[in-house]
Amino acid sequence: MIEVKNVTKTYGKKHSTFKALDDVSFSIPEGASVAIVGKSGSGKSTLMHAMSGLDRPESGEVIIDGTNILKLKSKAVDRFRSEKIGFIFQAFFVQANETCYDNVALPLEIARVSGTARKAQIVDALNIVELGDKVRQKARNLSGGQKQRLAIARAIVNKPSIIFADEPTGNLDSTTGEKVEDLLFGLNKQNGSTLIIVTHDADLASKCDMQIYVKDGKIDRIEGEQAAPVEEPEEVVVEKGPQDSREDSRHLKGVSRIGGDKESEEEE
Ligand SMILES: Nc1ncnc2c1ncn2[C@@H]1O[C@H](COP(=O)(O)OP(=O)(O)OP(=O)(O)O)[C@@H](O)[C@H]1O
Ligand SMILES: [Mg+2]
């Protein structure tokens, strides 16, 4: 369950401020598929970033499985994200000079998954997006669609309970786009992952359980059925640390969030 309560996000300072999210509230049941729909500039990416702990709005709460992630310290947020969340960015943000393997390894490094388990999960994720033959290729040598699939592999490698996808098919041809859609809905249906997807595609939006329409930083309306919670036990794939994730943060050293710089750690 994700609860967004009175979230407001203002960009800029003093004279040039812009309220990108204005007192937004709604909730998403566990296991639902949700489309976030709205015009360019309406606040969709800002909302996704706020809901996933990538960004901190100045007020409001984002409660995921009972934890208000806006109250966590930044390292604890990173840890929380590495265990529960996969994020597919609008502009994929792959590390061009790193191999596919190392790109996908990042969330597992943050979650401190051990070497052997890590390797199997990475190869699995790359196979799922049909990049099994590119494991040792540098990301810069991939085509645009392959980079997008690499970004998806990185987002799903930790078997996240929540997947955010910011226009994941926007840059793809229709065949590859359909494959990506099938992949995401497959994870939603089979693993029970909550899927939250920004899209301009009305067909794709209508395939989701719920549609959240955003307009000028506000929720215009919410359509669709609120899916019944999925009661399946969560598949545990990462080593859990001590109970309080705030305590965990001290174990995290020198690992930055997805999309940031990182120290490369060779596997072999
Ligand atoms: N860092 C920033 N500084 C100032 N304004 C920003 C910043 N990031 C976003 N905005 C503004 O906030 C508004 C919402 O942006 P956002 O990226 O959330 O839109 P969006 O709905 O995702 O649009 P698109 O469909 O084009 O991706 C826009 O008007 C944008 O110009
Ligand atoms: Mg956007």
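^ magnesium ion complex. The chain has eight helices and ten strands. Residues 88 and 165 are 5 Å apart (CA to CA).
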